[in-house]
Structure formats: structure tokens, C-alpha cells
Specification:
The structure holds two protein chains of two kinds. Chain A is α/β, with parallel strands linked by helices. Chain A has two domains: 22-235, Rossmann fold (3-Layer(aba) Sandwich); 245-307, Alpha-Beta Plaits. Chain A has ten helices and 13 strands. Chain A has helices at 60-67, 85-93, 111-121, 126-139, 155-166, 185-200, 212-218, 236-243, 286-295, 310-318; strands spanning 22-31, 34-44, 49-53, 75-80, 96-99, 173-177, 204-209, 221-226, 229-234, 247-252, 271-274, 279-283, 302-307. A six-stranded mixed beta sheet of chain A has the order 5-6-7-3-8-9, with helices on both faces. A four-stranded antiparallel beta sheet of chain A has the order 11-12-10-13, covered by helices on one side. In chain A, strands 2-1-4 form a three-stranded antiparallel beta sheet, with helices on one face. Chain B is mostly helical. Chain B is built from ten helices and no strands. Chain B has helices at residues 7-56, 65-85, 88-96, 99-104, 110-138, 150-169, 176-192, 207-211, 214-227, 234-265. Classes of the chains: A alpha/beta, B mainly alpha. The interface between A and B is medium-sized, with 38 and 30 residues.
């Protein structure tokens, strides 16, 4: 039994290559007649943190599952770590760390056992699994829970364990499918902190999210997906500069008033967006826009001036909000 | 350079996982696999058998009812356990715990998951059959040292059910139909496949039915070893064996398809 099999991929200090870690051209996934991913192109470079931002059903998870070599490509080309997922699936998977959207932890086992057996799946020796498990428990701040059965842990702890588990093979590339969905703010921040540390160590992160703040926190570069297609690509800042204004004034009105304002706000801002519950004024000086509204004699119940976010980019690109 | 697990290694890893989980319930399960034959053989073999053996021993190949019944129960118990192992744990791995998906995210392939799980069920069947056979010997319910081969025969009987049932389980999204399998499949077979009484006691039209299900063949084979009569009809014994193997091979190929398909679908 080859107990000595160890993946010797460096977490840090790996030479930067010019060839992308992931390259997709015309990447397509169909389920029968339904097209989940429609001929998308993207590259992910080594060491970068790359995001797929989009609402549920945009095709993010289907894309991730193709990159994870568990779902075959329907059409187009996909290269991961210079290999073809169709031919080299197990070889690629040996070098990936996967955090799936739904937890796949073994609830009947303890926290530590979950790490150990996962290491065994990669062919690591028991001794190596044990050594790495201790480090990872520490990294995930779960050392004190090592002997607890997973079933009784909180959602945040399970996510941390899933991330720790995905690192047992010292992956070159991590795939995180909605890593913080369903977690409370505190748990999310702890998780972001851990992911940020991985990024600093040089691990390439690919993640999907429908939280704009998560994308802004974690992604060097991202693509916005909607209805199976990529509708925009760039760094969070580039996207905001390109598709939005510096600031936004959010106006909320007494019930019934908003519907009577058609046309009355024209010219105040670069763009005016009517949402069901509020009006957004896109302007480089949000404060000035809010004052201008007041000067026209229009009484808002509340005014919030904030910086533009990816949410605004998404709204601009698709006419819909990210999280319904 | 990253070394990749050989295909056979993948199967071993899946087995290792199942064993790790099993360790938690190991003692309780070993006890129940010991208790089941003790209770059955005591009640049916000794209790009920004391009425049967005097009146119609000739119909039972000239052996006591206990000696007739015990190998039948051995095969039927393997069938029941295998059917259980091939339903709920398969659904748990694919849908509830999703542990099979966790395996599939590593170098382990869908085929490894399938073969590893079937190998695990086979190991369980061997254990259950061994414990059962020991109890049979203790009860004096065996007639021949060939009974040692009743262990693999009973395990094969279990696998002839486990493989196709595992394949079916992987196509299901809820466990609703599992009850139907047990109620309309496993239980009637348990009662009417020559376990408790010879097949020729059945109405003539029902007899061919028993031939198309694996349990009858498993019971005859297991009983042949336990009574030492297996050599009397060697051709028929080979046919029984081939039927069991046929169910296992077809079931395994089918299970590989359905389990892999479910892993791909997510």
C-alpha cells in the first residue's frame, strides 16, 4: 500500500508562471435542453483570487463543478493546471481543495477523524494525515473541538472544518462554492480572515458568491454571471468605476409617494434607479444629489449616501438585485 | 510531482471510510448478528422443529427440521442485511451526508465509490455469515464439514441482492420505495424461497417464480454445503452459483452507472 504518497505542492514560493492555472474557452454545460453555462471564457492566474459573482441559478456552481472535474464539460475547452479534466480528472483533483456549497462532512465521525479520512482519500500516510490534521485544526481554530462529533457543531464551525479539510492535500488551487452562505456575520468574518491568510500564502482561490461584500473582500478579479453568461469582468474597483458612479444616494419615501415621482428626479443624478422599495441616485457626489432632491421640494423619509458597490454594478448590468 | 492513487487504492480508501464509521457501532452490530441466529434457531429450529421432525422427516431429505432450516435462514439473513446495507447507507452517502461526493472531489472515482461500497457490504456479509455459521455449529444444526463453504455461499446470496438494490437506491431521491422493496420483495422471498419448507410444497405455478429470484438459489447452495449433499447434483449446484454471480455482475455494472451518474449530477 503506497502510504508514502505525498503531494509536494508548495503553498508559497511557487514560481509564477505565465500560463493561466485555469483557462476556459467557450465553456458550456447543458443538462438536456437546459443550458446552465453558455460558452463562457475566462482565465485564472496563479496566486490570484478569482470570483464568480451572480444570483442563484446564474451557472456559478455548474462552472465550479466542471473546474472541480466532477461534472463533464458539454462543449468548449477547459484546462486546469495545464491538464484536461476529461482525461486527467483524478490527477487534477489530487491537486485541488474543494469546499462545496453543501457540506459533505461525515456527521458520524469526529472533527479530527473527518480530516484524517479525507487525507487518506488522497493517499497520504496515516502519520502524514495526523501531522497535517493538527496543523489544520489549529488553522481553523477547532483544536479544542477535535474530538467532538461533527453533527453537534454550528454551521460556522462546519464550514471552517470543510475548509480545513480541503487543505489536507496542500492544494495549489482552492474552489470555494458560496463559502459563507447561511452564516452569521461573525462566522463570516472569521472565515474571510482564514481565506485571506491562504491568499497571502499564495494559494489560488476561486470562489462563487452572491454576496457583493464577500466578492469585494476576497476577490482580486471577478466575473459577473447572469443567466449562464459572463456579463462583465474586472477587479471590483474597475467594475464599479466602469458601471457605476462613485457614490449612491438611497431615498426611501412614505408609502405611496414613490409612485408619484416619475420624471421629477430627472437630471439630479447620472442615473436614477427605481426599485420597489427605494430610489437610487447614482452620482459622484451623493450628498449633493440628496440636497438637490430636497431643493425640488421632494420629501424623502430617509436618505442614505454610500459608496457604490458591486451590488450596483450588478443592478446596472442585469436590472435586478443580487439577493432577492 | 503529485502521486495519484491507483484505482484499486481508491476502493481501499472507500472501504477504510466505511470501516471507520462502522467502528462506532461495531460491538452492538456484532452482538445483534450473533443474537439473531440464536433466537431464530432456538424458536423455529428447536421449538417448531420438535413438531416437524417426527412427522415428515422424509420430506426434508431425511434430516431434522433444525438442520434443514438453519442454512436457509443463514442465506435469508444475508439477503435481509444486504438489502438494508444497499438502501439507506447508499442514499445517505449520495444525498444525506453526501460523503460519497466528498470522496469524489478527491482522486477517488465514481467507480471506486461503487466498488468500495459493494466490497464493504461483502465484508459485512462474510462476517454475518461466519457468526451465523458458528451459532449453527453450536446448535448442532450442521451435517457436514463442508458447511465452511456455506459462508461464502450465503455472502454471495447477499451480494446478489446488494448490487442491484444499490443500483436502484442511487436512482432514488427519497427512501419511500425502500419500504416497498422490503415489504413486497424481501419479506415474501424470505418466507417462500425454500427457507422454511421445501419449494415443492409451493403450488406448482409459484415454483418457477422462486427460480428467477436469487434467494432460492442461494438457499439451495448454502443448504447443500451445510448438509453435505452438494455433490449429489453438481451441475445444478453450478447453475445456482452462476445465477448468483449473474445477479452480482449485472447489478454491479448497473450500480456503477447509477452511482456515478448521481455523483456527476451533484
Amino acid at each position: 500500500m503506497p502510504d508514502d504518497v505525498v503531494s509536494t505542492t508548495a503553498l508559497a514560493g511557487a514560481p509564477l508562471s505565465t500560463t493561466p492555472l485555469i483557462a476556459a474557452r467557450g465553456l458550456t454545460k447543458k443538462f438536456g435542453e437546459f443550458t446552465a453555462v453558455d460558452a463562457i471564457d475566462f482565465d485564472v492566474a496563479q496566486g490570484e483570487s478569482f470570483g464568480f459573482l451572480g444570483p442563484n441559478g446564474a451557472g456559478k456552481t455548474s462552472t465550479m463543478r466542471m473546474i472541480g472535474c466532477v461534472s463533464p464539460v458539454t462543449a468548449g475547452t477547459l484546462s486546469i493546471l495545464g491538464l484536461d479534466p476529461d482525461r486527467d480528472g483524478p490527477r487534477i483533483r489530487a491537486r485541488l481543495g474543494v469546499v462545496p456549497q453543501q457540506d459533505t462532512l461525515d456527521n458520524e465521525l469526529t472533527v479530527r477523524e473527518n480530516l484524517l479520512i479525507y487525507g487518506r482519500y488522497f493517499g497520504l500516510s496515516r502519520a502524514e494525515c495526523a501531522r497535517r490534521a493538527d496543523d489544520l485544526l489549529d488553522f481553523a481554530q477547532l483544536s479544542e473541538r477535535a474530538g467532538d462529533q461533527v453533527e453537534h457543531m454550528s454551521g460556522g464551525m462546519k464550514r471552517r472544518l470543510t475548509i480545513a479539510r480541503s487543505l489536507i492535500n496542500e492544494p495549489e488551487l482552492m474552489l470555494l462554492d458560496e463559502p459563507t452562505t447561511g452564516l452569521d456575520p461573525q462566522a463570516r468574518h472569521l472565515l474571510w480572515d482564514r481565506l485571506y491568510r491562504l491568499k497571502q500564502r499564495g494559494v489560488t482561490l476561486v470562489l462563487t458568491t452572491h454576496y457583493m461584500d464577500e466578492a469585494e473582500q476576497l476577490c482580486d478579479r471577478l466575473v459577473v454571471m447572469d443567466k449562464a453568461k459572463i456579463v462583465a469582468a474586472g477587479s471590483p474597483r474597475e467594475l464599479i468605476e466602469r458601471y457605476s458612479t462613485r457614490e449612491v444616494a438611497e431615498l426611501r419615501f412614505a408609502p405611496g409617494l414613490q409612485e408619484t415621482l416619475d420624471g421629477q428626479l430627472d437630471g439630479i443624478a447620472e442615473r436614477v434607479e427605481h426599485l420597489p422599495d427605494r430610489i437610487l441616485l447614482y452620482a459622484d457626489d451623493g450628498e449633493a444629489a440628496a440636497v438637490a432632491v430636497h431643493e425640488r421640494g421632494i420629501q424623502a423619509e430617509s436618505v442614505l449616501v454610500r459608496r457604490s458597490s458591486l451590488e450596483d454594478v450588478f443592478l446596472r448590468l442585469t436590472g435586478r438585485s443580487l439577493v432577492d | 510531482m503529485t502521486a495519484v492513487a491507483r484505482p484499486s487504492t481508491g476502493i481501499e480508501r472507500v472501504l477504510e471510510h466505511r470501516f471507520l464509521v462502522y467502528r462506532r457501532t461495531f460491538r452492538a452490530s456484532l452482538f445483534s448478528s450473533f443474537l439473531t441466529p440464536v433466537l431464530f434457531l432456538a424458536a423455529m429450529g428447536l421449538g417448531l422443529g420438535s413438531y416437524v421432525s417426527t412427522s415428515s422427516a422424509a420430506a426434508l431429505d431425511g434430516v431434522s427440521y433444525l438442520a434443514f432450516l438453519a442454512p436457509g435462514l443463514l442465506a435469508a439473513t444475508c439477503m435481509q442485511s444486504a438489502a438494508f446495507e444497499a438502501t439507506f447507507p447508499i442514499m445517505a452517502g449520495l444525498l444525506w451526508n453526501r460523503t460519497f461526493h466528498a470522496m469524489h472531489a478527491t482522486p477517488i472515482s465514481g467507480r471506486d465509490v461503487t466498488l468500495g461500497n459493494l466490497a464493504w457490504i461483502a465484508a459485512r456479509m462474510l462476517l454475518i455469515a461466519t457468526v451465523f455459521t458458528v451459532v449453527m455449529v453450536l446448535f448442532g444444526a450442521t451435517e457436514s464439514p463442508l458447511v465452511i463453504f456455506a459462508i461464502p455461499a450465503a455472502a454471495l446470496t447477499g451480494m446478489a441482492f446488494a448490487a442491484p438494490i444499490a443500483a436502484f437506491s442511487a436512482t432514488q431521491r427519497t427512501p419511500e420505495k425502500f419500504n416497498a422493496i422490503f415489504r413486497f420483495g424481501i419479506t415474501p422471498l424470505f418466507l417462500f424461497s425454500g427457507t422454511f419448507f421445501p419449494l415443492d410444497s409451493l403450488p406448482t405455478i409459484l415454483q418457477p417464480l422462486a427460480w428467477v429470484t436469487p434467494l432460492y438459489h442461494g438457499v439451495v447452495l448454502t443448504r447443500g454445503f451445510s448438509l453435505g449433499t452438494i455433490g449429489e447434483e453438481p451441475v445444478l449446484a453450478v447453475v445456482h452459483l452462476l445465477v448468483l454471480l449473474g445477479f452480482i455482475v449485472v447489478g454491479t455494472v448497473w450500480a456503477d452507472r447509477t452511482i456515478s451518474a448521481r455523483l456527476v449530477r451533484g
